[in-house]
Amino acid sequence: MKTVETKQPDLGLIKKISQSIGELPPSPTVVSRVMGLTSDLNSNVEELGEVLAADAALTAKVLRLSNSSFYGRSRTVSSLREAILILGFYTLRSLVIASTTYSLYRSKGNPDDGRKLWEHSLASALAARIVADKIAHPDLEEIFIAGLLHDIGKLILRERLGEVFQEVGSAAHNNNMSYLEVEQSKLGFTHADLGAAVLERWCLPGKLVDGVRYHHLSQFDPETSNNVPIHAVVNFGNELAKLIGACYANLQQVRLDNLPLATRYHFDQETIENIALDLEDHFAEEKRLFEEA
């Protein structure tokens, strides 16, 4: 399979995107408010609880998800205040964005397409978080969120340029090319560029934006990086999601043990298989929790 190196978008990219798909979507209100409150560790817990409580469906999802084994709960969390205090602002931020992202993927267009995109995004986020934990990366929640949102550009293309989106998928599959190559040829930008533009519009932190913008890049400089860049962890999680079958399209996969992250941390095939088994368990549980919530 051909490899594609994403480049820094040119200055006209945002204008190009806007002209192609119209106005970019605004940040969901609850995400905007939660991101603002949780970015300040001195924020009032009661105020944050009021923001969440205004959305009954979101409240139910946060409580349900906060009780999942993936978040290490040893006892039942029964109130929003307790969830906020026990989980902490950063984990709560991840849960809120996960819940909102689920709604975005399932709200419009072909339901099967939306389901596949969501499942791949969730599996990628979980995989990236498992790997981040394994390598003791300090940005666990940022990596989880970047994993959840890494393909949001595909979601926007599916909603705004549905016919072109389908053509890109068909061309990539029929010609054994990457989405990036076809998108660049047809649109002049990629879903990674578009996703980054959306997150910038939503005023999300730069490290999250770059995690999405460069999620197709596995390379990093081990000599100058104390920690693996977020994009490289998300890239690895993306490939792990494909390994367990949680993928939007049946494109060729790469050898995970050949990726720079695996080389740096000595992940052999057995290690990767064990991570994949762990991922399958977490993915099955988290998917069920979202579908039931």
Summarize this structure briefly.
This protein is an all-alpha fold and 293 residues long.
Give a description of the structure.
The chain is built from 16 helices and no strands. With 293 residues, it is mostly helical. The chain has one domain (13-292): Hypothetical protein af1432 (Orthogonal Bundle), CATH 1.10.3210.10. Helix 4 crosses helix 6. The relative contact order is 0.14.
Layout of helices and strands:
Blueprint: H1 13-21, H2 29-38, H3 45-53, H4 56-66, H5 80-87, H6 89-107, H7 111-134, H8 140-149, H9 152-160, H10 162-174, H11 179-187, H12 191-201, H13 206-213, H14 230-243, H15 260-265, H16 269-292
Helix pairs in contact: 2-3, 2-6, 3-5, 4-6, 5-6, 6-7, 6-8, 7-8, 7-14, 7-16, 8-13, 8-14, 9-10, 9-12, 10-11, 12-13, 13-14
